[in-house]
Amino acid sequence: MSLNRSSSAGGKTVDLEKDDASSGVRAAQANVDATSTDVSASENRRILRKIDLHIMPLMCAVYLIQFLDKTSLSYAAIMGLREDNNLSLSEFSLLSSIFYIGYLVGQWPTNWLLQRLPLAKYTAANIIVWGVVLACTAVTTDFKGLMVVRFFLGLFESCVSPSFALVTSMWYLKKEQGSRTGIWFAQNAVANALGSFLAYGLAKHDLAGDFTIPGWQILFILLGGLTVVLGLAVLFFLPDTVRSARFLSHEDRLVAVRRIKSNQTGVGSKVHKWYQVKEALRDPLTWLYCLYALAVNVFNGAITSFFSILIKALGFNGLDSLLLSAPGGAVLFIGVISLMYLGDRFKKRLLFGIVGLSIGLLGVLLIWLLPTSVQVGRLIGYYLSLVATVGFIVILSLISSNVSGSSKKTTTSAMFFIAYAVGNLIGPQTFRAQDAPRYGPALATFTGVIAFGIVDLALIWFLNVRENRRRDALALESEGKGASGQQQQGQDADELDLTDRENLAFRYVC
After folding, report:
1. What is the CATH number of domain 20-496?
2. Which has more confidence, 27 or 70?
3. What ranges do the domains of the chain cover?
4. Confidence bin at 11 (pLDDT 50/70/90)
Protein backbone atom coordinates (compact mmCIF):
# COMPACT_ATOMS: atom_id res chain seq x y z
CA MET A 1 0.00 0.00 0.00
CA SER A 2 2.85 2.43 0.59
CA LEU A 3 4.31 4.53 -2.21
CA ASN A 4 7.78 5.82 -1.35
CA ARG A 5 9.26 8.18 -3.94
CA SER A 6 9.90 11.85 -4.61
CA SER A 7 7.26 13.61 -6.71
CA SER A 8 7.09 17.09 -8.17
CA ALA A 9 3.73 18.84 -8.50
CA GLY A 10 2.98 22.44 -9.31
CA GLY A 11 6.67 23.27 -9.26
CA LYS A 12 7.18 22.05 -5.68
CA THR A 13 8.89 18.83 -4.66
CA VAL A 14 7.38 16.49 -2.11
CA ASP A 15 9.78 13.90 -0.68
CA LEU A 16 7.72 10.82 0.09
CA GLU A 17 10.69 8.88 1.47
CA LYS A 18 10.99 11.11 4.47
CA ASP A 19 9.61 9.70 7.68
CA ASP A 20 10.14 13.01 9.48
CA ALA A 21 6.75 14.59 8.69
CA SER A 22 5.47 16.48 11.67
CA SER A 23 1.71 16.78 11.94
CA GLY A 24 1.30 13.92 14.37
CA VAL A 25 -1.74 11.73 14.74
CA ARG A 26 -3.88 14.48 16.17
CA ALA A 27 -2.89 17.12 13.62
CA ALA A 28 -3.13 14.72 10.67
CA GLN A 29 -6.53 13.50 11.75
CA ALA A 30 -7.68 17.08 12.23
CA ASN A 31 -6.56 17.80 8.67
CA VAL A 32 -8.86 15.09 7.38
CA ASP A 33 -11.87 15.27 9.66
CA ALA A 34 -12.22 18.88 10.73
CA THR A 35 -14.71 21.12 8.99
CA SER A 36 -12.03 23.80 8.59
CA THR A 37 -9.93 25.83 10.99
CA ASP A 38 -11.17 28.94 9.15
CA VAL A 39 -14.88 28.09 9.12
CA SER A 40 -16.99 28.26 12.26
CA ALA A 41 -19.60 25.62 13.02
CA SER A 42 -22.45 28.07 12.43
CA GLU A 43 -20.96 29.21 9.09
CA ASN A 44 -20.51 25.60 8.05
CA ARG A 45 -24.13 24.73 8.81
CA ARG A 46 -25.37 27.79 6.94
CA ILE A 47 -23.29 27.09 3.82
CA LEU A 48 -24.10 23.37 3.91
CA ARG A 49 -27.80 24.17 4.05
CA LYS A 50 -27.51 26.38 0.96
CA ILE A 51 -25.57 23.72 -0.91
CA ASP A 52 -28.10 21.04 -0.01
CA LEU A 53 -31.03 23.21 -1.12
CA HIS A 54 -29.50 24.16 -4.48
CA ILE A 55 -27.35 21.17 -5.50
CA MET A 56 -29.07 18.07 -4.11
CA PRO A 57 -32.56 18.59 -5.65
CA LEU A 58 -31.06 18.83 -9.15
CA MET A 59 -28.88 15.76 -8.64
CA CYS A 60 -31.77 13.77 -7.18
CA ALA A 61 -34.15 14.70 -10.00
CA VAL A 62 -31.63 13.80 -12.71
CA TYR A 63 -30.66 10.52 -11.09
CA LEU A 64 -34.33 9.61 -10.71
CA ILE A 65 -35.08 10.25 -14.37
CA GLN A 66 -31.94 8.46 -15.61
CA PHE A 67 -32.98 5.30 -13.78
CA LEU A 68 -36.52 5.57 -15.14
CA ASP A 69 -35.10 6.05 -18.64
CA LYS A 70 -32.72 3.10 -18.30
CA THR A 71 -35.35 0.72 -16.91
CA SER A 72 -38.23 1.90 -19.11
CA LEU A 73 -37.47 -1.07 -21.37
CA SER A 74 -38.49 -3.46 -18.60
CA TYR A 75 -41.81 -1.68 -18.08
CA ALA A 76 -42.41 -1.50 -21.81
CA ALA A 77 -41.84 -5.27 -22.13
CA ILE A 78 -44.97 -5.88 -20.05
CA MET A 79 -46.89 -3.18 -21.96
CA GLY A 80 -46.57 -4.76 -25.40
CA LEU A 81 -43.14 -3.70 -26.66
CA ARG A 82 -41.99 -7.29 -27.20
CA GLU A 83 -45.09 -8.22 -29.15
CA ASP A 84 -45.20 -5.05 -31.28
CA ASN A 85 -41.51 -5.42 -32.23
CA ASN A 86 -41.58 -9.22 -32.50
CA LEU A 87 -38.86 -9.73 -29.88
CA SER A 88 -37.76 -13.10 -28.53
CA LEU A 89 -36.42 -13.35 -24.95
CA SER A 90 -32.86 -13.58 -26.29
CA GLU A 91 -33.35 -10.42 -28.38
CA PHE A 92 -34.77 -8.64 -25.34
CA SER A 93 -31.65 -9.70 -23.40
CA LEU A 94 -29.49 -8.19 -26.13
CA LEU A 95 -31.42 -4.91 -25.88
CA SER A 96 -30.59 -4.84 -22.18
CA SER A 97 -26.91 -5.54 -22.91
CA ILE A 98 -26.47 -3.09 -25.80
CA PHE A 99 -27.27 -0.23 -23.42
CA TYR A 100 -24.16 -1.15 -21.42
CA ILE A 101 -22.05 -1.53 -24.56
CA GLY A 102 -22.87 2.12 -25.27
CA TYR A 103 -22.15 2.91 -21.61
CA LEU A 104 -18.82 1.10 -21.89
CA VAL A 105 -17.80 2.93 -25.08
CA GLY A 106 -18.64 6.27 -23.48
CA GLN A 107 -16.78 5.84 -20.19
CA TRP A 108 -13.21 6.76 -21.01
CA PRO A 109 -14.06 9.73 -23.27
CA THR A 110 -16.61 11.10 -20.82
CA ASN A 111 -14.22 10.93 -17.84
CA TRP A 112 -11.51 12.60 -19.95
CA LEU A 113 -13.93 15.35 -20.98
CA LEU A 114 -15.25 15.82 -17.43
CA GLN A 115 -11.77 16.94 -16.35
CA ARG A 116 -11.40 19.39 -19.23
CA LEU A 117 -14.84 20.85 -20.02
CA PRO A 118 -17.18 22.83 -17.75
CA LEU A 119 -18.64 20.09 -15.59
CA ALA A 120 -22.28 21.18 -15.38
CA LYS A 121 -22.60 22.28 -19.01
CA TYR A 122 -21.11 19.04 -20.33
CA THR A 123 -23.43 17.00 -18.10
CA ALA A 124 -26.48 19.03 -19.16
CA ALA A 125 -25.69 18.53 -22.86
CA ASN A 126 -25.55 14.77 -22.37
CA ILE A 127 -28.85 14.75 -20.45
CA ILE A 128 -30.65 16.71 -23.18
CA VAL A 129 -29.34 14.45 -25.95
CA TRP A 130 -30.24 11.21 -24.16
CA GLY A 131 -33.76 12.58 -23.56
CA VAL A 132 -34.18 13.06 -27.31
CA VAL A 133 -32.78 9.55 -27.95
CA LEU A 134 -35.20 8.01 -25.45
CA ALA A 135 -38.19 9.73 -27.07
CA CYS A 136 -37.08 8.28 -30.42
CA THR A 137 -37.63 4.78 -28.98
CA ALA A 138 -41.36 5.39 -29.48
CA VAL A 139 -40.98 5.30 -33.26
CA THR A 140 -39.00 2.05 -33.47
CA THR A 141 -40.67 -0.86 -35.23
CA ASP A 142 -38.15 -3.68 -34.99
CA PHE A 143 -35.18 -5.16 -33.15
CA LYS A 144 -32.56 -3.23 -35.18
CA GLY A 145 -34.12 0.14 -34.43
CA LEU A 146 -34.32 -0.65 -30.74
CA MET A 147 -30.68 -1.72 -30.71
CA VAL A 148 -29.61 1.64 -32.15
CA VAL A 149 -31.53 3.81 -29.66
CA ARG A 150 -30.50 1.65 -26.69
CA PHE A 151 -26.82 1.93 -27.67
CA PHE A 152 -26.94 5.73 -27.87
CA LEU A 153 -28.98 5.93 -24.67
CA GLY A 154 -26.19 4.09 -22.85
CA LEU A 155 -23.53 6.21 -24.55
CA PHE A 156 -24.98 9.51 -23.33
CA GLU A 157 -26.12 8.27 -19.91
CA SER A 158 -22.54 7.18 -19.20
CA CYS A 159 -21.66 10.68 -17.99
CA VAL A 160 -24.11 11.04 -15.10
CA SER A 161 -22.62 8.86 -12.34
CA PRO A 162 -18.98 9.97 -12.88
CA SER A 163 -20.16 13.57 -13.07
CA PHE A 164 -22.16 13.36 -9.86
CA ALA A 165 -19.27 11.66 -8.05
CA LEU A 166 -17.13 14.69 -8.97
CA VAL A 167 -19.87 17.14 -7.97
CA THR A 168 -20.17 15.42 -4.58
CA SER A 169 -16.42 15.57 -3.93
CA MET A 170 -16.38 19.22 -5.10
CA TRP A 171 -19.09 20.45 -2.72
CA TYR A 172 -19.06 18.19 0.36
CA LEU A 173 -16.69 17.23 3.15
CA LYS A 174 -15.55 13.62 3.33
CA LYS A 175 -17.73 13.00 6.37
CA GLU A 176 -20.75 14.25 4.38
CA GLN A 177 -20.07 12.45 1.10
CA GLY A 178 -21.34 8.99 2.01
CA SER A 179 -24.79 10.15 3.10
CA ARG A 180 -25.08 12.63 0.18
CA THR A 181 -24.09 9.97 -2.35
CA GLY A 182 -26.69 7.75 -0.73
CA ILE A 183 -29.37 10.44 -1.09
CA TRP A 184 -28.93 11.01 -4.82
CA PHE A 185 -28.31 7.35 -5.59
CA ALA A 186 -31.42 6.38 -3.58
CA GLN A 187 -33.48 8.09 -6.27
CA ASN A 188 -33.09 4.81 -8.16
CA ALA A 189 -35.38 3.38 -5.51
CA VAL A 190 -37.85 6.26 -5.83
CA ALA A 191 -37.78 5.77 -9.60
CA ASN A 192 -38.46 2.07 -9.13
CA ALA A 193 -41.65 2.80 -7.23
CA LEU A 194 -42.70 5.77 -9.35
CA GLY A 195 -42.05 3.89 -12.58
CA SER A 196 -44.14 0.98 -11.39
CA PHE A 197 -47.18 3.17 -10.75
CA LEU A 198 -46.65 5.12 -13.98
CA ALA A 199 -46.34 1.98 -16.10
CA TYR A 200 -49.31 0.35 -14.33
CA GLY A 201 -51.52 3.37 -15.01
CA LEU A 202 -50.48 3.58 -18.66
CA ALA A 203 -50.89 -0.17 -19.16
CA LYS A 204 -54.36 -0.15 -17.58
CA HIS A 205 -55.58 2.69 -19.80
CA ASP A 206 -53.93 1.03 -22.79
CA LEU A 207 -55.87 -2.19 -22.17
CA ALA A 208 -59.07 -0.16 -21.86
CA GLY A 209 -58.43 1.35 -25.32
CA ASP A 210 -58.08 4.93 -24.04
CA PHE A 211 -55.01 5.71 -26.20
CA THR A 212 -54.66 6.15 -29.93
CA ILE A 213 -51.07 4.84 -29.80
CA PRO A 214 -49.66 1.98 -27.69
CA GLY A 215 -49.01 2.75 -24.03
CA TRP A 216 -45.31 1.86 -24.27
CA GLN A 217 -44.83 4.56 -26.91
CA ILE A 218 -46.45 7.14 -24.64
CA LEU A 219 -44.09 6.02 -21.85
CA PHE A 220 -40.98 6.75 -23.93
CA ILE A 221 -42.27 10.10 -25.23
CA LEU A 222 -43.23 11.23 -21.72
CA LEU A 223 -39.94 10.22 -20.10
CA GLY A 224 -37.90 11.65 -22.99
CA GLY A 225 -39.63 15.02 -22.70
CA LEU A 226 -39.12 15.17 -18.92
CA THR A 227 -35.45 14.33 -19.37
CA VAL A 228 -34.91 17.22 -21.80
CA VAL A 229 -36.56 19.64 -19.34
CA LEU A 230 -34.27 18.44 -16.52
CA GLY A 231 -31.24 18.79 -18.79
CA LEU A 232 -32.14 22.43 -19.36
CA ALA A 233 -32.54 22.92 -15.60
CA VAL A 234 -29.04 21.53 -15.02
CA LEU A 235 -27.67 23.81 -17.75
CA PHE A 236 -29.07 26.94 -16.10
CA PHE A 237 -28.89 26.12 -12.38
CA LEU A 238 -25.99 23.73 -11.65
CA PRO A 239 -22.66 25.59 -11.21
CA ASP A 240 -19.54 24.30 -12.95
CA THR A 241 -17.41 25.06 -9.89
CA VAL A 242 -17.82 26.34 -6.34
CA ARG A 243 -16.32 29.67 -7.40
CA SER A 244 -18.98 30.17 -10.10
CA ALA A 245 -22.01 29.40 -7.90
CA ARG A 246 -24.56 32.16 -8.38
CA PHE A 247 -26.63 31.04 -5.39
CA LEU A 248 -23.71 32.00 -3.12
CA SER A 249 -22.45 35.50 -2.45
CA HIS A 250 -18.77 36.26 -3.10
CA GLU A 251 -18.00 35.89 0.61
CA ASP A 252 -19.95 32.61 0.83
CA ARG A 253 -18.02 31.18 -2.12
CA LEU A 254 -14.77 31.86 -0.29
CA VAL A 255 -16.16 30.12 2.79
CA ALA A 256 -17.33 27.15 0.69
CA VAL A 257 -13.85 26.82 -0.84
CA ARG A 258 -12.16 26.94 2.57
CA ARG A 259 -14.72 24.45 3.87
CA ILE A 260 -13.70 21.70 1.46
CA LYS A 261 -9.93 22.23 1.58
CA SER A 262 -9.70 19.71 4.43
CA ASN A 263 -10.75 16.98 1.95
CA GLN A 264 -7.27 17.20 0.35
CA THR A 265 -8.65 15.54 -2.80
CA GLY A 266 -7.59 18.25 -5.28
CA VAL A 267 -10.14 17.78 -8.09
CA GLY A 268 -9.81 21.22 -9.65
CA SER A 269 -6.78 20.79 -11.93
CA LYS A 270 -7.41 20.77 -15.70
CA VAL A 271 -3.87 19.48 -16.44
CA HIS A 272 -3.63 15.79 -17.32
CA LYS A 273 -0.83 14.15 -15.34
CA TRP A 274 0.38 10.79 -16.66
CA TYR A 275 2.17 9.84 -13.45
CA GLN A 276 -1.22 9.96 -11.69
CA VAL A 277 -2.68 7.66 -14.34
CA LYS A 278 0.17 5.21 -13.69
CA GLU A 279 -0.38 5.47 -9.95
CA ALA A 280 -4.06 4.63 -10.39
CA LEU A 281 -3.12 1.56 -12.43
CA ARG A 282 -0.64 0.42 -9.76
CA ASP A 283 -2.93 1.04 -6.80
CA PRO A 284 -4.48 -2.22 -5.48
CA LEU A 285 -7.54 -0.31 -4.29
CA THR A 286 -8.31 0.71 -7.88
CA TRP A 287 -8.47 -2.93 -8.91
CA LEU A 288 -10.55 -3.90 -5.89
CA TYR A 289 -13.05 -1.18 -6.83
CA CYS A 290 -13.13 -2.47 -10.41
CA LEU A 291 -13.46 -6.14 -9.43
CA TYR A 292 -16.39 -5.23 -7.21
CA ALA A 293 -18.08 -3.25 -9.99
CA LEU A 294 -17.59 -6.09 -12.48
CA ALA A 295 -18.85 -8.89 -10.22
CA VAL A 296 -21.77 -7.40 -8.32
CA ASN A 297 -23.18 -5.54 -11.33
CA VAL A 298 -23.80 -8.88 -13.02
CA PHE A 299 -26.61 -9.09 -10.47
CA ASN A 300 -27.60 -5.44 -10.95
CA GLY A 301 -27.74 -5.68 -14.74
CA ALA A 302 -30.02 -8.69 -14.64
CA ILE A 303 -32.38 -7.38 -11.95
CA THR A 304 -32.63 -3.92 -13.52
CA SER A 305 -33.71 -5.29 -16.89
CA PHE A 306 -35.69 -8.35 -15.84
CA PHE A 307 -37.38 -7.42 -12.57
CA SER A 308 -40.90 -7.31 -14.03
CA ILE A 309 -40.31 -10.60 -15.85
CA LEU A 310 -38.86 -12.13 -12.67
CA ILE A 311 -41.87 -11.06 -10.61
CA LYS A 312 -44.16 -12.48 -13.27
CA ALA A 313 -42.18 -15.74 -13.06
CA LEU A 314 -42.96 -15.88 -9.33
CA GLY A 315 -46.56 -16.54 -10.33
CA PHE A 316 -48.15 -13.11 -10.72
CA ASN A 317 -49.83 -11.78 -13.87
CA GLY A 318 -48.23 -9.19 -16.13
CA LEU A 319 -50.19 -6.15 -14.94
CA ASP A 320 -49.80 -7.03 -11.26
CA SER A 321 -46.06 -7.55 -11.75
CA LEU A 322 -45.73 -3.86 -12.63
CA LEU A 323 -47.50 -2.81 -9.43
CA LEU A 324 -45.74 -5.35 -7.21
CA SER A 325 -42.31 -3.94 -8.08
CA ALA A 326 -43.18 -0.67 -6.29
CA PRO A 327 -42.61 -1.94 -2.68
CA GLY A 328 -39.12 -2.97 -3.80
CA GLY A 329 -38.35 0.69 -4.39
CA ALA A 330 -39.48 1.56 -0.86
CA VAL A 331 -37.31 -1.20 0.66
CA LEU A 332 -34.30 -0.06 -1.36
CA PHE A 333 -34.81 3.60 -0.45
CA ILE A 334 -35.00 2.86 3.27
CA GLY A 335 -32.01 0.53 3.05
CA VAL A 336 -29.81 2.98 1.15
CA ILE A 337 -30.64 6.08 3.20
CA SER A 338 -30.36 4.35 6.59
CA LEU A 339 -27.19 2.32 5.90
CA MET A 340 -25.32 5.19 4.22
CA TYR A 341 -26.30 7.54 7.07
CA LEU A 342 -25.13 5.02 9.67
CA GLY A 343 -21.90 4.51 7.75
CA ASP A 344 -21.06 8.23 8.00
CA ARG A 345 -22.47 8.53 11.53
CA PHE A 346 -20.25 5.76 12.94
CA LYS A 347 -17.38 6.25 10.42
CA LYS A 348 -17.78 2.64 9.28
CA ARG A 349 -18.96 3.07 5.71
CA LEU A 350 -17.56 -0.27 4.52
CA LEU A 351 -19.10 -2.17 7.44
CA PHE A 352 -22.59 -0.96 6.58
CA GLY A 353 -21.91 -1.74 2.92
CA ILE A 354 -21.25 -5.33 3.98
CA VAL A 355 -24.51 -5.29 5.96
CA GLY A 356 -26.39 -4.19 2.82
CA LEU A 357 -24.78 -6.94 0.74
CA SER A 358 -25.65 -9.53 3.41
CA ILE A 359 -29.31 -8.50 3.32
CA GLY A 360 -29.24 -8.72 -0.48
CA LEU A 361 -27.65 -12.17 -0.32
CA LEU A 362 -30.40 -13.35 2.02
CA GLY A 363 -33.00 -12.10 -0.46
CA VAL A 364 -31.45 -13.95 -3.40
CA LEU A 365 -31.31 -17.16 -1.36
CA LEU A 366 -35.02 -16.82 -0.52
CA ILE A 367 -35.93 -16.49 -4.21
CA TRP A 368 -33.71 -19.40 -5.15
CA LEU A 369 -34.34 -21.93 -2.38
CA LEU A 370 -37.96 -21.41 -1.30
CA PRO A 371 -40.52 -23.69 -2.99
CA THR A 372 -42.27 -22.09 -5.98
CA SER A 373 -45.57 -22.38 -4.09
CA VAL A 374 -44.34 -19.83 -1.50
CA GLN A 375 -45.03 -16.81 -3.70
CA VAL A 376 -45.07 -14.17 -0.95
CA GLY A 377 -41.82 -15.40 0.60
CA ARG A 378 -40.02 -15.33 -2.75
CA LEU A 379 -41.44 -11.86 -3.48
CA ILE A 380 -40.08 -10.62 -0.13
CA GLY A 381 -36.77 -12.17 -1.15
CA TYR A 382 -36.81 -10.07 -4.32
CA TYR A 383 -37.40 -6.90 -2.28
CA LEU A 384 -34.54 -7.72 0.12
CA SER A 385 -32.16 -8.57 -2.74
CA LEU A 386 -32.30 -4.95 -3.92
CA VAL A 387 -30.53 -3.76 -0.74
CA ALA A 388 -27.30 -5.24 -2.16
CA THR A 389 -27.11 -1.97 -4.12
CA VAL A 390 -25.74 -0.30 -0.96
CA GLY A 391 -22.35 -1.93 -1.57
CA PHE A 392 -22.01 -0.24 -4.95
CA ILE A 393 -22.91 3.15 -3.46
CA VAL A 394 -20.25 2.68 -0.78
CA ILE A 395 -17.58 2.06 -3.44
CA LEU A 396 -18.80 5.06 -5.45
CA SER A 397 -18.55 7.27 -2.36
CA LEU A 398 -15.05 5.96 -1.62
CA ILE A 399 -13.87 7.08 -5.06
CA SER A 400 -15.04 10.58 -4.06
CA SER A 401 -13.51 10.44 -0.57
CA ASN A 402 -10.40 8.30 -0.91
CA VAL A 403 -8.96 9.04 -4.37
CA SER A 404 -6.98 12.27 -4.50
CA GLY A 405 -5.38 13.94 -7.50
CA SER A 406 -7.49 15.08 -10.45
CA SER A 407 -6.01 12.74 -13.08
CA LYS A 408 -5.91 9.80 -10.69
CA LYS A 409 -9.54 10.37 -9.73
CA THR A 410 -10.79 10.54 -13.33
CA THR A 411 -8.72 7.48 -14.28
CA THR A 412 -10.04 5.46 -11.34
CA SER A 413 -13.58 6.59 -12.10
CA ALA A 414 -13.26 5.62 -15.77
CA MET A 415 -11.90 2.16 -14.91
CA PHE A 416 -14.60 1.66 -12.28
CA PHE A 417 -17.46 2.52 -14.62
CA ILE A 418 -15.99 0.46 -17.44
CA ALA A 419 -16.07 -2.52 -15.06
CA TYR A 420 -19.61 -1.49 -14.05
CA ALA A 421 -20.68 -1.51 -17.69
CA VAL A 422 -19.13 -4.92 -18.35
CA GLY A 423 -20.87 -6.41 -15.31
CA ASN A 424 -24.21 -4.97 -16.37
CA LEU A 425 -23.54 -6.21 -19.90
CA ILE A 426 -23.09 -9.78 -18.67
CA GLY A 427 -26.02 -9.72 -16.24
CA PRO A 428 -28.98 -9.94 -18.66
CA GLN A 429 -27.41 -12.98 -20.33
CA THR A 430 -27.85 -14.99 -17.12
CA PHE A 431 -31.61 -15.11 -17.76
CA ARG A 432 -32.26 -17.85 -20.32
CA ALA A 433 -35.64 -18.96 -21.67
CA GLN A 434 -34.92 -22.63 -20.90
CA ASP A 435 -34.43 -21.82 -17.20
CA ALA A 436 -37.91 -20.28 -16.75
CA PRO A 437 -39.75 -19.94 -14.44
CA ARG A 438 -37.21 -20.75 -11.69
CA TYR A 439 -34.12 -19.23 -13.34
CA GLY A 440 -31.89 -21.32 -11.06
CA PRO A 441 -28.55 -20.71 -12.85
CA ALA A 442 -29.10 -16.94 -12.75
CA LEU A 443 -29.89 -17.00 -9.02
CA ALA A 444 -26.86 -19.19 -8.32
CA THR A 445 -24.72 -16.64 -10.18
CA PHE A 446 -26.20 -13.79 -8.12
CA THR A 447 -25.38 -15.66 -4.92
CA GLY A 448 -21.75 -16.05 -5.97
CA VAL A 449 -21.15 -12.46 -7.07
CA ILE A 450 -22.76 -10.93 -3.97
CA ALA A 451 -20.68 -13.22 -1.72
CA PHE A 452 -17.58 -12.06 -3.63
CA GLY A 453 -18.64 -8.44 -3.04
CA ILE A 454 -18.68 -9.01 0.71
CA VAL A 455 -15.11 -10.36 0.62
CA ASP A 456 -14.01 -7.48 -1.63
CA LEU A 457 -15.36 -4.79 0.72
CA ALA A 458 -13.76 -6.52 3.71
CA LEU A 459 -10.37 -6.51 1.95
CA ILE A 460 -10.66 -2.80 1.07
CA TRP A 461 -11.49 -2.11 4.72
CA PHE A 462 -8.44 -4.08 5.90
CA LEU A 463 -6.06 -2.28 3.50
CA ASN A 464 -7.40 1.17 4.42
CA VAL A 465 -7.11 0.53 8.16
CA ARG A 466 -3.59 -0.84 7.77
CA GLU A 467 -2.42 2.14 5.70
CA ASN A 468 -3.98 4.66 8.11
CA ARG A 469 -2.17 2.97 11.02
CA ARG A 470 1.12 3.08 9.09
CA ARG A 471 0.72 6.81 8.50
CA ASP A 472 -0.27 7.37 12.12
CA ALA A 473 2.91 5.60 13.20
CA LEU A 474 5.00 7.81 10.89
CA ALA A 475 3.24 10.88 12.29
CA LEU A 476 3.96 9.84 15.90
CA GLU A 477 7.60 9.22 15.06
CA SER A 478 7.97 12.55 13.27
CA GLU A 479 6.16 14.40 16.05
CA GLY A 480 9.03 13.53 18.34
CA LYS A 481 11.53 14.79 15.76
CA GLY A 482 9.75 18.12 15.35
CA ALA A 483 9.63 17.88 11.55
CA SER A 484 7.08 19.68 9.41
CA GLY A 485 6.79 17.74 6.12
CA GLN A 486 3.45 16.04 6.67
CA GLN A 487 1.78 19.23 7.83
CA GLN A 488 3.07 21.08 4.76
CA GLN A 489 1.77 18.29 2.51
CA GLY A 490 -1.66 18.62 4.11
CA GLN A 491 -1.69 22.37 3.61
CA ASP A 492 -0.49 22.20 -0.03
CA ALA A 493 -2.42 19.10 -1.18
CA ASP A 494 -5.13 21.07 -2.95
CA GLU A 495 -2.78 23.58 -4.60
CA LEU A 496 -0.30 20.89 -5.68
CA ASP A 497 -3.01 18.44 -6.78
CA LEU A 498 -1.32 15.68 -4.75
CA THR A 499 -2.58 12.11 -4.90
CA ASP A 500 -3.65 10.22 -1.80
CA ARG A 501 -0.36 8.24 -1.96
CA GLU A 502 1.81 11.35 -2.21
CA ASN A 503 0.11 13.19 0.64
CA LEU A 504 1.05 11.42 3.89
CA ALA A 505 -1.37 13.64 5.84
CA PHE A 506 -4.22 12.00 3.90
CA ARG A 507 -6.33 9.43 5.80
CA TYR A 508 -8.59 6.90 4.09
CA VAL A 509 -12.29 6.69 4.92
CA CYS A 510 -13.17 3.20 6.12
Report:
1. 1.20.1250.20
2. 70
3. 20-496
4. very low
